[in-house]
Structures are given as C-alpha cells and as structure tokens.
Amino acid sequence: MAATTVAVPPAEMPLPHEYRGRVGMWCLIAAESAIFSIFVVAYLYYAGKSLGGPTPREVLHVPYFNSICLFSSSFTIVMAERAIARGKTKLFGIWWLLTIALGTIFILGTAREWYHLIYNDGLTISSSLFGTTFYSLVGLHAFHVIVGLIGLSLIMIFTALGYVEQEHVPKIEVFAMYWHFVDAVWVVVLTVVYFIAL
Amino acid sequence: MSNAESVLRPMPVSAAREDAKPFFDQVHEWIVTVDHKKLGLMYILYGILFLVIAGLEATVMRIQLAIPHNHFVSPQVFNQLFTMHGTTMVFLVGMPLLFGFANYLAPLMIGARDMAFPRLNAFSFWMSALGGIILYFSFLGGPGLYGAGSAPDVGWFAYAPLTSQAFSPGHSTDYWIIGLLVSGVGSIGTALNIVTTVLCMRCPGMTLGRMPLFAWLNLVMSAMVLIVISPLTAAQIMLLLDRYLGAHFFDTQAGGSAVIWMHFFWIFGHPEVYVLIIPGFAIASEIIPVFSRKPIFGYSIMVAATVAIGFVSLGVWAHHMFTIGMTSYANAFFVASTMAVGVPTGIKIFNWLGTMWGGKIRLTIPMLFCIGFLFQFLIAGLTGIMLAAAPFDWQLGNSYFVVAHFHYVLIGGLVFTIFAALYYWYPKVTGRMWNETLGKWHFWLFLIGFHLTFDFMHIPGVLGMPRRIYTYEPGRGWELWNMIVSIGVIFQIVGILFWVVNVVWSYLKGKPAGNDPWDAWTLEWATSSPPPEYNFAKIPVVRSRRPLWDLKHPEDPDWKYE
Amino acid sequence: MSFNRRLGTTVCCLAALCLSTAKAAAAAPGGDPAIPNIFTPASTPADSVYHLSLFVLEVCAVIFIVVFSLLAYCVVKFRQRASDDGREPPQIYGSNQMELAWTVIPVLIVVVLFLATARVIHAVEDASFPPNAIEVTAVGHQFWWEFRYPQQAFITANELHVPVSEAKEPTPTHITLLSADTDHSFWVPMLAGKTDLIPNRTNSMWIDPHETGTYVGQCAQYCGVQHAKMLLRVVVESRADFDKWIAGQRAPAQVADSVAKGRQIFETTACVNCHAIAGTDAKGKFGPDLTHLMSRETIAAGAALNNRENLRLWVKDPEAMKPGSLMPAMQLPDQDLNALTDYLVSLR
C-alpha cells in the first residue's frame, strides 16, 4: 500500500487563524449595519408624516464642526495604528488620545444640539414622528460612539500603564475597524437626516 | 504512518477520570467551561427542556380546543399559552438546539480544537439562557393584558398597536421584548462565532469546497442570523421607546403605522424560519449519504442552492402580509419571490433523492427520521406554494391551514431531523449505542401522532377556522377535526417518552460505540467517543470531502474524482 | 418481507387519508352557509379564489405524486438486503444534466403558477364597481363590528345585510375597512378572502353574493382577549327584503310608554357614554349602536343568541358570557335591571 503522504500545495491552505479577529469584527459590523438600516428606513418612511411639532427644516442645522471632528478621528486612529506598527508606543499614545478627544467633542456637540432642540425648539422623542425617529436614529449612533469611546479609553489606560506593545497591532486594528464603522454610519445618518429628508 | 492516519488510533476513554471528581467540582466545570462540546451539550439540553415546556403548553391548548365552548382554561390563559408556545419554540428551542449542534460538531468536522472565540461562546450561551429565564419569569405575576398575569399574550409576532401601552398595560409585552433582546445578543454572538470558526479554523487542506455540508449550511445560517435578528432587535427597541418614552413608531393616533411593525417583524420573521430549517438540511445532508453508502449527490449545487435560499428568503417577507391591503403589484411581487424560493428548495430534495438512488439504504433510526423528513418537507413545501398564491392565502391566511403548514415544516421537517441528529451523534457524544427497539417505538408513535395532528389540522383551516382563538362555535363542521388533532398529541407525547427512556437507559447500559459505529466519512468520526477535550491529538490534513473514505479506501480515494 | 407489508399498509392508509381529504376539500359551489368552507364559494371573489385554488392544488398534487413515488421507489428498491455482499455501491457525485432538468422544470411551473395567480390578484383587487353597488363602511372594534351605511345614513352593528347580486344586473357590496383600535380581519369564507382592518389605514374589499343565506365568519387577526368571539354574520337576502331591512334600520328608535322607566334608566346611567340610540340623547360611539338591537339574531358579536335572558345577563354580568370584553357590569338593582331589559327588548 503506497504511503498516503498528504502533501498539500500552499494554494489549498484555508484562511489562517490570524484572520479571526477581523472576520469576527466584520460579522459584528454586518449585524450592526442591519440594525441601523431599520432605523434609517423608519426615518425615511416617516419623513413629512408628522402631525405637528417643529419640522426638520425649521430646527436642524448641519453639524459641520462635529462631523469634521468625527471624520478626523478616523484619520488620527489610522496614524495611531501606523505608529504602533513601527513600535512607537509614545506616538501611538498621542494619536490615540487625539482620537478620544475628537470623539468626545462629537458627543458633547451632539449633547449641545439636543439641549437646544429640547429646551428651545420643543422637539422631544414624544412630540412628533420627526422627534421619535430623529432622536432614536441619532441617539443609536451616539450610543455606539460612546461605546467606542469607552473602548478607546480602556486601551488608553492600558497604554499609559505600559501594557500595549507592537505585538498587539492586530487587536488594535480590529478595534479600529469598529471605530471606522461608527464613522461610516455617521456619513449615512448625516446625509439622510440633514440633507435628504428635510 | 501519515499524519492523517495517526488520528485514527483509538484514544483512551476519558470517562473514568471524569467520574472521580467531586460533584460540585463537576458542576463548576460545566458552569465556567469554554469548551465547545460542553457548551453545545448545554445548548441542546436547554433546548430540550424548553421543548418539553412548550409541548406542555401546546397540550393544554389542544385539551381546550378538543371540544367547542370548552372551559379547561380561561381566554386570558389560552392567549398567554399560544404566545409563549410560539415564542418558546422559535427562540428557546429551535435556535438553541441548532446552535448546540453547530457548536458541538462544526469544530470537530473542520478539524479544529475549538470555536474561534471560546469565551464569546460561553458568554453567548449564558445570555441566551438568561433571555429564556427572563421570558419565563413573566409567569410569576403582575398585571398583564386586562389584568391577566404577566406572561406575554400578544402572539409570538406581537403586532402593533396591540402591544402599545394603551392595549397592553402591565408588563407582559415588556417580558417578551426584553427576554428576546437578551437572547438575541446571545444568538448574534454564536452566529459570529460560527462564521469566524468555519472561515478561519479549518484544518490544512480543507478548502471551502471540501468542507462537510453541515459546516457550509451552518455558515449560511449564521450569516443570515447576523443580518436577520437585527431587524427584530431594532423593532423591539422601537417598541420599548414607544411604551416607555412616549415615542410614536407604532402609535397610530400620532400618525404612526401599524403596518411598519409588520414589515420590520417579517423582515426578521421570514428569513428566521429558513434560519431554523437550514441546519435541519445540514443534518439530513450528513446522515442520508452515510446510510445510503454514497456521497451527497451534487455537492456544489447543494451549496449554491442553500446560498440562493439565503438570499432570496430576504425578499419574500410580505407574503405574511397578503391580507393587509397592499397594492396588486406589491402582492404580485411577493408571490413571485415566494414561489421562486421554492425552486432551490426543491432542488435540494431532488439531490437527497439522488443520493439515495442506487445506494444501499440502511434503515437505521436516524435514516428513518430523515426519510420522514423528506416526505413531510415535500408536503410542507407544497402547502407553502399554495399559500404563496396570494388569493389562496386571502382565504387560508391566519387560519388553521397556516398553523398546519408551519408545524409541518417545523415538526415534520426540523424536529424529525433533530431526532435523526440526536440518534446519529449520540454514540459520538456519549460513547454508547442506544436501544434499537425503544428507538423504533419512538419513531412510529411519533410519526403516527404527528400525522394525526397535523394532517387533519389542515381541514378546519379550509372550513374557516382562524388561529389564536381560545374556543370556537359548534355547528361549523370543526368539532370532529379538532378532536382528532387533539388525540394525535397523545401519541406524540408517548413517542417522546420512549426517546427519553432510551437516552437514559442507553447512557447507563448501552453497548460501547467505538469511534465510528456508522462507518461514516467526516472528521468527527476520526476521534474517540466521546472526543477528548482537545478533539484531535494531531490536527488532521485532508485532501477531499470525505477524509475517512480516503483512508478506508486508499485504492479508490475521493480526491481522484472531485 | 414484513417490512414491505408494513410499508405497503402505511402507503395505502396515507393514500386513503389523502383521497378522503381531497374529497372533502374539492366540494362544488353551493354549500351550506352555516359551514364556512372556502371550497363552497357563494360570491364572485370567493369563486375566483376557488378556481385558482383548484388549479394550484392540481399542480401540487402532480408534483407530490411524482416526488413521493420517487422517494417510495428509492426506499424500497435500494434498501440494503440481508444477502448483501458488503461492498459499497457505485459512488456517484452528481450529474449536471439532472440538475439542469430539475431546475428548469420547477422554474417553468413557478412561472405558470405566478401568471395564473397574478391574474386573479388583479381581477379581485383592481375590480371596478357599477354605480348601484352598495357601500358599507366596516369599523373594527375590540370585540365587535360597526357597520355604517353612508348612502342610507344609518349605523348598525355585528350583522351585515346585503342584497343578493343577480347575474343580469350585479349589485356587489363594496366594504371600506377601518379600525378604531387594534388590527382585525374581516373573514366570511364563502363570500371572499379576508382583508385586514388596520388603524390609521383605509382598506377595501368587495363581495358579490349570488345565493341568499346567512353566511358566518369571524375576526381573523388576533386583536386581544376576546378575539375568538368577534363573530360575523352576513345576511344575503332578496332585494325586496333588503330594502325592507334598510327602511327598518333608518327609522328612529321605537318609543313605547310601557318601557319609559327602562328608557329613563338607560339615559341616566353610563349606558349613553358608549351606546347610541337614534332619536334619543344617547349618542355614544364606543359601543354598538342599539337603535334596532332586536333586529339582530345575536348579541355581543355572536357570543350569544339575542333573547331576553341573554340580554339581561349581558347587562348584569358580561364576564359570564364574554370574559375580557369591554362592556362593564352595570351594577343595577334587580328591578332597574328588569326595566332596562324591557326597554332593550322593545328596540326593534
């Protein structure tokens, strides 16, 4: 009986184990995208159907500054990844902190916008269909930003304590995917809420 | 000796060492485990526990409906029973059982040591368990719809605006929402884990084209879960906002739409039933070839058909809404898409028949259940085509015909394959063979009971009996059929009791099974029964879809023909 | 050998079951209105659905016979025999021609079924109505039906009267469907398929009954505790009888001095908050219109026959008849209850 040595040509090697984190994060992104899609659909469906209350045109102003901050944080997180990939932990820490700061500005800006809408314009989640769909969609996104900020802060703490090394690059890349996703969702929400469904 | 051959050496039976540990240590081990086999077994036991509970709920309903104007339970309790029965069966029986099988078998079949994220695996299981506990905690009181106690009573699809605060004061609906939200987190976690495991943890040589169909179909199912549970999650968040923060998503008084709940729910709900049945297909695709002694007929087409089902099933949801007054164009579109999804499904049935054709069929208990599955799934698919013809659905929708149809798919299709799986892999999990006589009693009694109940259930639907009614009027011609339907339940219960006895008796007294009692071909049969914690001493290297066939038939290996 | 006999017996039993079911199912039109069989239609939309259903059933029956025969053949012919030599059978991996065949044929079947179905959808949903069609607006409530006749300007409840539609000069009835609270569904199988009543949405259906009779149905979308007792009765009668009924319904409420006490109790108790009686001060909209209560055969949307004892019990203790309905127990002393019942019984 001939020896059945199973010499496997390299082309037949399936996806390596190291891809786990990225595949897993793509799965999470897929699931979260589906949730956001439903809220966007609800927003578009109910656009113009409110029975009363302030309309989008009356009270919404495009949050240019906030959005630029959030989009810039995607840039800063990429710079951070590059830094740690070259082993420059201190530089990584600086870019990472900048990312947190930009994300925090976005959240504070959103809070300010909501304060104004609630107390000056009288728009609440229960005042009309517009209020319901606006706060839930923008709020769901803000919630995801906050979760991201918590994760970013934890990594910041680990960095400050000296635990983050070059070998952690793959895990940081996976986390950064989540942050980019949050940014991408803001592109959609910004376009739909502040430009399309006015 | 080659790498692949070395895995066939019998492993020492590890059971003796396990029994030596004190009881509390064993319990602790199970609670903190991240081992996919233990988690898989816990999922399965959890599913079976709730199968029994939901079965009891159904039994009470059938006693109430056996005669018209019965007073076995009050209307409030009946409404809670059908809501809990449906919700339990879909979320606390179907999903856990299927995730349990995937958890246990997928890593073994792809030659891995565990799932991609073992800790996420444990977290997801316990979240699912928590969801079920929250849902069932609702039976313990508090005011619900019309003061009837807290268990949800809004139907498993919880249509708005019945679920608004105005029509469901009290917490019954909230238990439904929160129990399922929590359980949904677990489902997404496990689905993510299965996708990542199947894509990234395969052993060398196992390209996607050489993966067992069980792994492929669970991959498709898990990818669907990721996309499809989210609409339900979103809709439930919206409902919670409506109920507690005064939002107006489904508030028809404020211009909101009851129909949009239906859209969101069924965008989840229809693909969900394919999520439930595709693992049943996966099981059949493993068992039928082994007991026909032939490879699966048309492997690539089976994969393609399943992927097609996955995609098309995302576009058929409004066939649950044919009666809500959509335009004739919308109705026609969903007729077309619904009938279209029957084509790849039919292709799969033909491929299973092609597998059996020209083979040497061994009528073991798992094979009997699979043959029952084929017969019943054929009928269920055909009643589905009938319902897909929208005008026919205008009569039959929301009637007992629909109830009969979906029980035919879920019990006649899914539960039969689950029993087949439980019998087929029992020797692998426990190391023991089950009792053939008890198995035959189980099969025939359950088959007879199933057909008594669900064949005849179509008739009241045709005679105008709607679903979700706690009683019905005499004189409409429904009495005889309801009585027969209720009697069938007795046979099913007795059949399942035979199975329970078999499980226990065989665990204690069954013959040792050995690694490969069925002379099968996939990798789980290459390791000991039960497998050691690390699954394989050496990670196998494969060259075809049936690595054990290649080893057993070195003169005629599969890789020459694939 | 014994297995073959068992298999044969099972097959024969199943075939007998199927045939008897088919016989029960494929009944010809002209059935008993008290048995709401979708296969005994008595109205044009139900007829259209019936004919489509027969076609679909026939196609499905053929598919079933073909595939089931293949399955049965496989199980019988390719079973491993006791005399087997233990060798594996030829290992076939697939066949592109077979796959093509059993893809193309089902696609063709689907196309044919779709076209047949689309035709009927269009015929029923996009039908146009002659000017003499009867207009009714049905409003679904928890757990009763409100029927308004806008052309004839009156409101009634739970029992719908329509004229029979002659082939020479059809008088279909067009029903606009609204809901006052949750989702409901109007289903009288012998007259038409069901259509839902959804709040904040206007739906539309029509019936065109060609046989007189009292057709039964009930709500077909779960709407709460007493969904099961939201029954429907549609009385299809000759044009003459229908016109007489209309005239009776349009008349103001009967006034009789003998029941003045009962009327006074009605008008001073909470009854008027929910119920309306034309020609009096009672103008409530939450419950059924009672102007011609006694013209109906049942009360509480079919939950009980309309007679004096049931009326009295309904007012005294609705939970006994329809637990969970929204009618409150009126807590009246017996004398007042009797007087009130007398008044109600006078509302012909």
What does this structure look like?
The complex is a heterotrimer of chains A (198), B (562) and C (348). Chain A has helices spanning 20-46, 56-59, 64-85, 89-120, 129-160, 169-196. Chain A is mainly α. The longest helix of chain A is centred in the middle third of the chain and has 32 residues, at 89-120. Chain A is built from six helices and no strands. Chain A is elongated. In chain A, helix 1 (20-46) runs parallel beside helix 6 (169-196) and helix 4 (89-120) packs antiparallel against helix 5. Chain B has 562 residues and is mainly α. Chain B has a single domain (32-560), classed as Cytochrome c oxidase-like, subunit I domain (Cytochrome C Oxidase, Chain A). Helices cover 66% and strands 0% of the residues of chain B. Chain B contains 18 helices and no strands. Among the domains of chain C are: 2-77 and 94-125, Helix Hairpins, CATH 1.10.287; 257-345, Immunoglobulin-like, CATH 2.60.40.420. Chain C has helices at residues 2-25, 44-77, 96-125, 239-250, 260-268, 271-274, 308-316, 318-321, 334-345; strands at residues 134-141, 144-149, 154-157, 159-163, 173-179, 184-186, 195-197, 203-207, 213-218, 231-237, 298-299, 304-305. Chain C contains nine helices and twelve strands. With 348 residues, chain C is an alpha+beta fold. The chains are: A mainly alpha (198), B mainly alpha (562), C alpha+beta (348).
Write the layout of secondary structure elements.
The complex is a heterotrimer of chains A (about 200), B (about 550) and C (about 350).
Chain A: H1 20-46, H2 56-59, H3 64-85, H4 89-120, H5 129-160, H6 169-196
Helix pairs in contact in A: 1-5, 1-6, 3-4, 3-6, 4-5, 5-6
Chain B: H1 3-6, H2 15-19, H3 23-32, H4 36-65, H5 75-109, H6 118-137, H7 172-200, H8 213-245, H9 258-292, H10 299-312, H11 328-356, H12 365-388, H13 390-396, H14 400-430, H15 436-456, H16 458-462, H17 479-509, H18 547-552
Helix pairs in contact in B: 4-5, 4-6, 4-17, 5-6, 5-7, 5-9, 6-7, 7-8, 8-9, 8-10, 9-12, 9-14, 10-11, 11-12, 12-14, 12-15, 14-15, 15-17
Chain C: H1 2-25, H2 44-77, H3 96-125, E1 134-141, E2 144-149, E3 154-157, E4 159-163, E5 173-179, E6 184-186, E7 195-197, E8 203-207, E9 213-218, E10 231-237, H4 239-250, H5 260-268, H6 271-274, E11 298-299, E12 304-305, H7 308-316, H8 318-321, H9 334-345
Parallel strand pairs in C: 1-5, 4-10
Antiparallel strand pairs in C: 1-2, 2-3, 5-8, 6-7, 9-10, 11-12
Helix pairs in contact in C: 2-3, 5-9, 7-9
